[in-house]
Amino acid sequence: MTQRRCTFTDASAIVDAFRVALRRDGTLYRSSQRRTLVGCFFQLIDYGRRSGQLNTLAGAFTRHPVEHRIPIEETDEDGIGKAVPETVIRQLDTHLDTLGLGEVQGRRDLPPADRQLLYQTVYILLRDTGRRPLEIAALPHHCLETAQGQISLIWNNHKRHRHRRRLPITESTAQAVRTWQARRPHLQLPAADDAYLFPALSAYSSAGHLNANYISETLRVWVDSLPALYAEGVDAHGNFLPFDRALIYPYAFRHSYAQRHADAGTPVDVLRELMDHRSIAMTQRYYQVSLKRKRAAVTTLSTHVVDRLGQPAASSTSGYELRSVAVPYGGCTEPSNVKAGGASCPIRFQCAGCGFYRPDPSYLPAIEQHINELRADRETAQAMDAAAFVTTALTDQITAFASTPRETVTAPVRDLLLTSRVRAEDRAGYERTKFKRLSGTMGSRARPAVPPRRDRQTLPGVPPAAQEPHPAVISARASPRPPRCRPCRVSASRRRPSPPTRPARTGCA
Q1: Which one has a higher pLDDT value, 296 or 265?
Q2: How far is 437 from 431, CA to CA, in rounded Å?
Q3: What is the pTM of this model?
Q4: Looking at residue 495, what DSSP letter applies?
Q5: Buried/exposed code over 392-408 (b: 16+ C-beta within 10 A; e: otherwise)
Q6: Start-to-end CA span in the chain (Å)
Q7: Which residues pair with residue 209 across a beta bridge?
Q8: Which end of the chain has fewer surrounding CB within 10 Å, N or C?
Q9: What are the residue ranges of helices labelled H in 264-354?
Q10: Could you read off the pLDDT of 265-282 as tens digits, one per residue?
């Protein structure tokens, strides 16, 4: 086929071939890899056209942004990203005595027992410290420091050029390092390698320390030589599920380190320091909130759910998850809306007056803030001499949340958030602390983003602490602000005065 005869159908056929591209071992490439291959192919085509090499290629042979898109495949929610599961790490530990045996990377004049001890120490440090492979390979010879009974590992962050970092480690990890330090002086190594804990295992190395690629290659040989490794769970016949060995590589242990601390409840700011990241957002990419943790949060919070009248509406954990969909400040159990994923409300998302609405107690601070914002908006509308329906609409929204001295609402609606607050605060000290922590878990990971202030849905009730007007509103009542023009948001007192020959304007320019 000539270039002139290529059509859009031919481009689609090539993309379809990339959709089912296989590795050398016969397994399907990950969706992200297939997307990259398609992108590189069409980038090559574009370069050929710009350079004049593909001037005769038909214009119809091009990429369509929708038809030729390979979607990212969603992963199992129980998965923990790139982290090696703890169950698999325990299986690896049982075979640690075989690490470094056989054909491994390194100097042939180094005794096999010494090479085996070297790689076993490297594995322990990767597993227990979560450092990058190069950071482990380039550890200084004297990398342990003891201060006030706490042992720290001295290491260098080569990626961000931050040196002499300190990481607390356990006694067992420190003992593994001491064992290798005691053996290292007996090795016949060049003097240039003395500065590093793990010397270069090649006569052609200029770095003076162990090559990070040697760690990857030796770990791959060891993992492939082990008997069956099993993942968590069983299949339909009760057999253990095999674990993909390709997911075990040196950098994956850094993800395992972060996931281990996250599951143990380590605060994210502390974990950021342990990972030596500058931003918390980067740290959060190294772990996931597993379905197990989400279920634990739902189990606790589901017992505090109330309906729109403030009555308890607790359900089972599975029922709470399967029969509700997230809406602003709570959940919706209306069947048609749940089926549509929250996009088909029969009453146009008037959640405050719906019997299927379930306020979420973890949203109490956000609801209180929203009430104060609504009151401030109403004061602004009154100062602007807005139409009656504007202030009425704002008053109705506030009425759905709370009762102020000038507003009357029914007792059930007025007591809705009060009931949620009392039920949360009546818990014993330990359980209340656990409740607040789980509320944070649900709020930071599971609940939907709150819509902009102007588009938030009306919800009922407010606790007594939030029933008084916001201090900014009281100040606005005492000293009314100049009227503001809504379209241009310019204060009337700051508008440019009109020319003397014309009447002064009172509206927008």
Answers
A1: 265
A2: 10
A3: 0.52
A4: S
A5: eebbebbbbbbbbeeee
A6: 66
A7: 199
A8: N
A9: 268-275, 280-284, 291-301, 317-322, 335-339
A10: 899 999 999 999 999 989
